[in-house]
């Protein structure tokens, strides 16, 4: 593998981001603008910012990495961004971009935060090929992100917030306002009960009529008490297409495999097993539904 020196532009960045020496591993190092070497860190310069070793932080609020400009790629090269040291009461997020455009996050292992990867506003984001696990509220949250895509991610063991810290529900992937959610695996969503109940969502979309939910795999949803488990829940769904997903529930009362707001939204060619209701409110076609 060829090694290439990545040079920093002549701009001062905040602490935690260092100029790049000659890299020794990872296929994307030759594209790096610079490296993130400690947390928390803020990215103020456009380009590709990479990890070259595992990083962790004990912050209990704020963000481990904040993207503060447009046209930024965070490439972790499969290294870890860890926040487990803050504990179950953490309010910290892993990677955050608010009101930014064209942010890409790839090859990151983000664990132990309130939300692993979070964008709000802007649009044109790409969140791909990440592993997010042990995040307490959402594995990923791409809200108000028109033209964005969340694809090829592994979202594992979401839930477990401390009592009173947004307890009562947890969601593997939350997205809305024009986000395409494609080819992700969500395994294990177990929210902390609040007043004896908790609701688990594999994928939750909000006003996502310009988006799609396609070829995802969801299992291990663990509701509690009067709460329920839902595979794909589309709120104010509009003309969302929900297609070719594989959903496995445990037969819990009131659980729903795929839910739409009305028949503007289409659910077709999904394989749904172990939910009390397979498809609710959608225009439904060619779905395989097994309540057992």
Automatic annotation (TrEMBL):
<protein>
    <submittedName>
        <fullName>Right-handed parallel beta-helix repeat-containing protein</fullName>
    </submittedName>
</protein>
<dbReference type="InterPro" id="IPR012334">
    <property type="entry name" value="Pectin_lyas_fold"/>
</dbReference>
<dbReference type="InterPro" id="IPR011050">
    <property type="entry name" value="Pectin_lyase_fold/virulence"/>
</dbReference>
<dbReference type="InterPro" id="IPR039448">
    <property type="entry name" value="Beta_helix"/>
</dbReference>
<dbReference type="InterPro" id="IPR006626">
    <property type="entry name" value="PbH1"/>
</dbReference>
<feature type="domain" description="Right handed beta helix">
    <location>
        <begin position="61"/>
        <end position="188"/>
    </location>
</feature>
<feature type="signal peptide">
    <location>
        <begin position="1"/>
        <end position="26"/>
    </location>
</feature>
<keyword id="KW-0732">Signal</keyword>
<dbReference type="Pfam" id="PF13229">
    <property type="entry name" value="Beta_helix"/>
</dbReference>
